[in-house]
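Students often ask why we bother encoding 3D structure as a string. The short answer is that it lets us treat folding as translation between two languages. Here is a chain of 325 residues written in the first language.
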Amino acid sequence: MSATDTATDAGTAADAGATAARGRRRGHWVAPPRPVWEEKPTRTGLAGKAIALSAACLAILFPLWIVIVTSLSSRSAIDAAGGLVIVPRDLTLIAYQELLSGGQVQRAALVSLGVTVVGTAFSMVVSVLCAYGLSRTHSLGHRWILMTLLATMFFGAGLIPTYLLVQALGLTDTYLALILPGAVSVFNVLVLRSFFMNISPELLDSARIDGAGDLRILWQIVIPLSRAVIAVIALFYAVGYWSAWFNASIYLTDQQMMPLQNVMIQLVQKQEPPTGLGQQIKTGRLSPLSVQMAVMVLALLPVAVASPFVQKHFRKGMLTGAVKG
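And here it is in the second language, the structure alphabet:
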């Protein structure tokens, strides 16, 4: 390629970027400029992409639609459909009213919410401190601590030693048993560490010259510059705590302490109605299937609400944090 062609391509790309910028300023969406080496898509290719994306969206949304509609359907509508309801008919909120009017489900939802909030906060504090320490390559024992953390990703003690340790610490039948055993993910620590290492060392050195200590540098410089990756890692921890059920099944014996996921397992797999709903099901006011679907919706709702607010940080947080190992 000659110098003239190169200059022409660069000018074309600059003109496309300027056009896109003007379109954004006017309030219209304009497709981002296409690289000069990328061919213009054909209509067949665009149609194929649209069909594939539509099929993927339908495969995801159709089961969710069935769950929501069934949870809102009356017993007569569920009986008429012979099970799961696809076409909305005779909608009612009685299942949600009963679930949120007290009893085991409401208590389990509060337990899951409390464990998620406290656990996520604790995990983020420990992970950020650990990642910042490991990102300073001159810190004491940096390499040995990093190798020890990496070893835990491939080798584990096993279920029985872990249970004996939790029991010896007196954590059984306590909410700490739902938080401490899985409080720190080494993968999340490594992602945070990689992101912290990408921050300009000159910026940190200038703050240290001005008299700032490590905690002040972390709080006032590193964390504000790392909001994207911190938001993504916090979402990972929150989803993990909210969806966790295994620790509660082996460390808790009191049914009143069970989180929402364990109540959902009891309801769906064992076909046992939660406390306070058995009489309504026997009298015909509620269908067991609508109660099951309503509990599923309640379990999915927090994640579905929080995900869109963190979605914009995924690319910057995860990809930038994964540049270095």
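Translate back mentally: The CA atoms of residues 133 and 140 lie 9 Å apart. Keep this in mind for the problem set.
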